[in-house]
Specification:
mainly alpha; 74% helix; 6 helices; Four Helix Bundle (Hemerythrin (Met), subunit A); transmembrane; 161 residues
């Protein structure tokens, strides 16, 4: 489903990436796009704090209720996946040709949407969360494989430069 969503958005959404000739410009563009991917994480932190305040626990450091634990786990996993996403996206931006830089904001949108889908499905039941997690993890895995391919096959002479 992820490749179909990315391809459809790449073809049908009417925007192009700005001209980014240098690596530093590409990294700044990636950093700006990655700021939008933090929206689900910040929203999760807010909801986690509110649910912790509204829980009826008499001891604040005691056993957490299920609704508090869901949000805390979501935020923790989202932060870990965002770190992986950001580093992979930064490396990917250095290897992509100019005409494919439109993928950077599309992959950012997919990350944010898939984290929200994971959060909703995790709140519904733990058995439903595989769809949202796979929508987050499989594009990360594809980016990692493309980055390794770019580093070791396409440009091995520039690996450490």
């Amino acid at each position: 489903l992820c490749p179909c969503l990315i391809y459809g958005a790449y073809i049908f959404l009417p925007f192009d990436a700005p001209l980014l000739p240098t690596v530093s410009a590409r990294l700044v563009y990636t950093l700006r796009c990655a700021a939008f991917a933090t929206f689900p994480i910040v929203l999760g932190m807010i909801v986690s704090g509110i649910s912790r305040l509204c829980s009826s626990a008499l001891e604040p450091f005691g056993e957490l209720h299920r609704e508090v634990e869901i949000h805390r786990t979501y935020v923790s996993q989202s932060i870990h996946l965002f770190i992986l996403y950001f580093f992979n996206m930064s490396v990917l931006a250095t290897y992509l040709p100019q005409e494919l830089l439109k993928l950077i904001p599309l992959l950012t949108g997919l990350f944010a949407i898939s984290r929200l889908i994971f959060w909703i499905s995790y709140a519904v039941g733990r058995s439903f969360r595989a769809f949202g997690f796979s929508m987050t993890f499989l594009p990360l895995l594809a980016m990692l494989l493309w980055n390794l391919y770019g580093m070791f096959i396409l440009e091995p002479e520039n690996l450490l430069s």
